[in-house]
Amino acid sequence: MTGRLNSAQPYVLGLFRVVVGLVFFCHGAASLFGVLGGAAGTHGGTLSAGTWPNWYAAVIQLVAGALVVLGLGTRAAAFIASGSMAFAYFDVHQKAALWPIENGGEMPVLFCWSFLLLVFTGSGAFALDGLLARRSTQRQPAAEQTPVAA
């Protein structure tokens, strides 16, 4: 059973990355473009450009979410996304109450830790990072390729 689960790990991690990134991307798109119900608290509208910190958070959500979905620069994008959600939690939600269930901060906490997990695990399967790494390895002359330890 463990062997079967371990063999599926990169694929499940890849699906996890796509789902988390897509939900994050949708938050940014809603806030910036008014789609999918619009920005929270605007009754279907958008955020004013340049407003601190919400507009900047929405840009991070849109760009980092797209990069995570594609698996392109996943670790860097996930690191920035994780930090932005930690900031959102401590700057907005934590002031209201100690626990996320009390202060409405469950989503920022889950996003923060999900993205932090991707920083350490990488992108998994179905990622452009892996495709680009394979292409660059194939283009190197044989003398430059370093052997991979088993």
Automatic annotation (TrEMBL):
Family label: Belongs to the DoxX family.
UniProtKB keywords: Cell membrane, Membrane, Transmembrane, Transmembrane helix
Location(s), subcellular: Cell membrane
PANTHER family reported for this sequence: BLL4328 PROTEIN, OXIDOREDUCTASE CATD-RELATED
Organism, scientific name: Streptomyces andamanensis
Membrane-spanning ranges: 12-35, 55-88, 109-128
Protein name: DoxX family protein
Phylogenetic lineage: Bacteria, Bacillati, Actinomycetota, Actinomycetes, Kitasatosporales
Superkingdom per UniProt: Bacteria
The keyword Phosphoprotein is assigned to this record: no
Recorded topology in the membrane: Multi-pass membrane protein
